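Is this the right way to post structure tokens for a design question? Let me know if I should format differently. Anyway, here goes:
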């Protein structure tokens, strides 16, 4: 039998019909940090309601506003509820980035165009976002699942689960995660931000979290076994993201951001 900590107490969930400004239902130590960071970059008037992160499923109170019961959720004036980081970032940028600091005025841009396909920048953006929310997230999710099972299971079962976990990493998890990181390293190129932007954009806001959740538990390493540097461009890019004042403010307001889940579970 798996042993989980007691469910922490969550705040009451507001009625979406009463919302007068964008309100983020924020789960600690989660991809909701993406949205909190973007809200701080946009410097708009918003509210954040913090939900403590349990060891098991998300707080049941989150189902009061959306049937999936996940975070992030962005409650909007008029009663609408937005979920999924990709959709929320798209909405926030198109609605509040009036000066186009973090996104472009159209699908084609002055600095990245393709005569054969004027929508190329949008297609490329979506491709890179999907590497985070699909490729990296699915592999890290599986790695965390087996890591958690091996740590929380009865002691006499742990060797079996640990062996299975290591086999999965050797079979495909390590290769797939490193392939995703290699792709991001290549796509970043010599620019400071993805898609050669002068400021961070949707790809940067979204992908940062998924790179982080691969690195923090040690599933992907920026330093090789012999001390060699791996993914140096990505590492420098992570530093630029985390040096931004908006990122620092989002950490202060988020109530906790620690993606080394195995360590928090007692590894």
């Amino acid at each position: 039998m798996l042993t989980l900590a007691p469910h922490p107490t969550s705040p009451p969930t507001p009625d979406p019909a009463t919302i007068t400004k964008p309100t983020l239902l924020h789960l600690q130590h989660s991809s909701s940090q993406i949205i909190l960071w973007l809200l701080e970059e946009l410097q708009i008037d918003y509210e954040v309601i913090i939900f403590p992160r349990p060891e098991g499923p998300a707080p049941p109170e989150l189902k009061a506003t959306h049937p999936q019961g996940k975070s992030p959720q962005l409650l909007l004036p008029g009663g609408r509820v937005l979920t999924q980081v990709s959709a929320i970032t798209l909405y926030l940028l198109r609605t509040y980035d009036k000066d186009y600091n973090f996104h472009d005025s159209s699908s084609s841009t002055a600095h990245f165009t393709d005569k054969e396909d004027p929508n190329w920048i949008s297609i490329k953006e979506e491709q890179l976002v999907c590497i985070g929310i699909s490729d990296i997230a699915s592999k890290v999710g599986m790695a965390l699942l087996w890591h958690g099972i091996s740590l929380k299971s009865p002691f006499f079962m742990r060797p079996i689960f640990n062996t299975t976990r290591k086999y999965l990493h050797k079979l495909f998890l390590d290769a797939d995660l490193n392939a995703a990181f290699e792709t991001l390293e290549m796509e970043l190129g010599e620019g400071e931000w993805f898609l050669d932007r002068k400021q961070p954009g949707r790809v940067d806001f979204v992908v940062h979290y998924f790179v982080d959740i691969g690195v923090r538990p040690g599933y992907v390493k920026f330093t090789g076994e012999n001390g060699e540097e791996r993914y140096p461009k990505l590492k420098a890019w992570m530093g630029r993201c985390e040096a931004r004042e908006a990122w620092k403010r989002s950490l202060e307001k988020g109530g906790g951001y620690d993606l080394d889940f195995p360590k928090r579970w007692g590894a």
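Format looks fine. Someone answered above. Worth noting: The CA atoms of residues 21 and 45 lie 7 Å apart. The two ends are 18 Å apart (CA to CA).
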